[in-house]
């Protein structure tokens, strides 16, 4: 693999070529190094860019003396493959093209494969801009980072934010997460934790000698089942919250009364709350449950009276749509696509930029509904549309 733009290529051919090379590089989380090497080499071929690297995160910046700086960021990793690697172009009429994609994009060929929407199409557009946008009206920083799809502690952007925050400072940032080329503002926060029930082990033939921890989990599941998802409006955008059990485990044998049961819970919370406020709703204000410090009794909230062990947490981010750069970009996007800004219902790295004082939005090629699916795919025109938007806005 070698990332390059062939001399004399049309814009469409250059975009397709970069996209094909990115898609052909296997980069499931923990296997991003080869692709990061290629991205670094590509950036170093561009004489107008200054390049830095930390682990498998590559940062390239212009130094044109403009009054404002915009950061364009995309992750290199994908979720695991499900019979969708290596990638391939599907010609019109191919039965593997989804009906919704075919009807919305008649006569177009479609890229099929892992990472097509999340988010190598947007990465290809950013690489193209990095090579061709030599005199933009803003200084630009491009960030291609690793480990976005796994636990927060591995996230390459987070590591750069802690070790070299100056590399990614700017007045505004765009994360190329798939949005169908519309603006999605802010993001929900997320936390994952185990709710733990304890019992006493005993032989199942003499169950009265023990206490069944799995049976105690019924109350936890009841509280979860009774939860009604909340819609929360923040700065004019509506976010949907959710609290769900995603895993459950317990028991040590088929004839043993279980002495422990763990219900893994994921809480997605709107950006009107910071992490402490979200935790308070789940476990009270003084439970003391933090990453890596074991089990603590919930003193209030949804799981009051049960033990909690934190597993992962990432903050929410407010929309930031009142920032002038965000407003001008949103106006252009709506003009070109008819799409008004919407809330980002999942978590994205706009939260990391928000934490260092950089307003950020999600804007990328492809449907977010197809991210992580086995039939992940994107019509060719999405690359051109995203390029049109960003070229017009940056000139």
How would you portray this structure in words?
- This protein has 395 residues and is an alpha+beta fold.
- It has 10 helices and 20 strands.
- It has helices at residues 11-24, 33-44, 99-104, 116-132, 156-163, 213-226, 275-283, 324-337, 350-355, 381-394; strands at residues 50-54, 57-61, 69-75, 88-90, 110-112, 139-145, 172-175, 184-185, 189-198, 202-203, 231-234, 237-240, 242-250, 256-257, 260-269, 295-297, 307-314, 342-343, 360-362, 377-379.
- The strands form 5 sheets. It has an 8-stranded mixed beta sheet with strand order 1-2-6-3-7-19-8-18, with helices on both faces. The chain has a 5-stranded antiparallel beta sheet with strand order 13-15-9-17-16, covered by helices on one side. It has a 3-stranded antiparallel beta sheet with strand order 4-5-20.
- Helix 1 (11-24) packs across helix 4 (116-132) and helix 4 (116-132) packs across helix 10.
- The longest helix is centred in the first third of the chain and has 17 residues, at 116-132.
- It is globular.
- The two termini are 31 Å apart.
- The model has no long low-confidence stretch (mean pLDDT 96).
